[in-house]
Amino acid sequence: MKKYGMATIDEVMQLNLLLEDFQAKSRKSVNSFEAIDAFHDWYNKASVCFVEQFGNNDMDVIKFRSVDNSGNGHVLLNNYYQISSCYQILLSRLNTNHMRIKSNEDKSKPMKVFVSHSSKDRYFVEVLVQLLEFIGLDDKTLFCSSVQGYGIGFNKDIFNTLREQFEKHDLYVIFVHSPHFYDSHASLNEMGAAWVLKTDFCSFLVKGFDYADMDGAIRPNERVSIKVDNDDAKSLMNDFKDQICQKFGLKCKNGIVWEVRRDEFLKVVLNQPAM
């Protein structure tokens, strides 16, 4: 029996970025040359990847490759709707393959918190990093690309550095959801990587950003989702702090000391204009 290859994280992330590019261009003008080219770029690369992983005779692969893509942009969009569920199934199967390897690899990887955000939300992540420092994290256990000392070193490639974080660490990802986040290819790339690897995570929603606005692979009903302008924000942040302490073996700071720092964080982020 033939053994098929293992898709890399980069390949899966690239497929999701190509799909997002097609979706954006088709929304703008479904029958434009740009949208048509974007569809073919995504579909052709996905087909090659799935054949390499599962072979030509796999039933899901056969279904994915069964559409006739010789039509115009309207035809291609309809084709996408026909095969979108099959695409998700094939991605899920890739994810299962990753998980088999990840469960063994992560035993030897150091743990680290990774703050996934848009650089335009720097004001938010700066005070979030200060709170994480207070909880007990440091530059060995925390990565945040927008905060000096916790991000990408001098003269280092940003995308290689981000990929290395996922490859070399057992990550706990904190997503900072905002309109800027969903406009950032890098942020969506990180979300896709976290979904593929089944990385543990939680979410913060900036002031004025609602649960209904969350899109992509990360949904509000998964894990802890803290909307900073909701009444339950303080209670959920207590749970968040306890989870970080438990994962990293830190002594929890409880009582008035923690509550003061928590409330200072909320005061700062709530004083920012709504998105």
Describe it.
- There is one protein chain.
- The protein is α/β, with parallel strands linked by helices and about 280 residues long.
- The chain has two domains: about 10-105, no CATH class; about 110-270, Toll/interleukin-1 receptor homology (TIR) domain (Rossmann fold).
- The protein contains ten helices and five strands, in the order ααααβαβαβααββαα.
- Strands 2-1-3-4-5 form a five-stranded parallel beta sheet, with helices on both faces.
- The longest helix is centred in the N-terminal third of the chain and has 33 residues, at about 75-105.
- The protein is elongated, with a radius of gyration of 21 Å.
- About 30% of the residues are buried.
- The model is unreliable at about 1-5 (pLDDT under 50).
CATH architecture of the largest domain: 3-Layer(aba) Sandwich
Q: What is the CATH fold-level name of the largest domain? A: Rossmann fold
Task: Please report which band the strand proportion falls in: under 5%, 5-15%, 15-25%, 25-35%, 35-45% or over 45%.
Answer: 5-15%
Shape: elongated
Name a few traits of the molecule.
single chain, 275 residues, alpha/beta, Rossmann fold, 2 domains, 5 strands, elongated, disordered N terminus
Short recap of the structure:
This protein has 2 domains: 9-104, no CATH class; 109-270, 3-Layer(aba) Sandwich (Rossmann fold), CATH 3.40.50.10140. 56% of the residues lie in helices and 9% in strands.
SSE diagram, text form:
Blueprint: H1 9-28, H2 33-54, H3 59-64, H4 73-105, E1 111-116, H5 122-135, E2 142-143, H6 158-168, E3 170-177, H7 179-182, H8 185-197, E4 200-205, E5 225-227, H9 233-248, H10 255-270
Parallel strand pairs: 1-2, 1-3, 3-4, 4-5
Helix pairs in contact: 1-2, 1-8, 2-4, 5-10
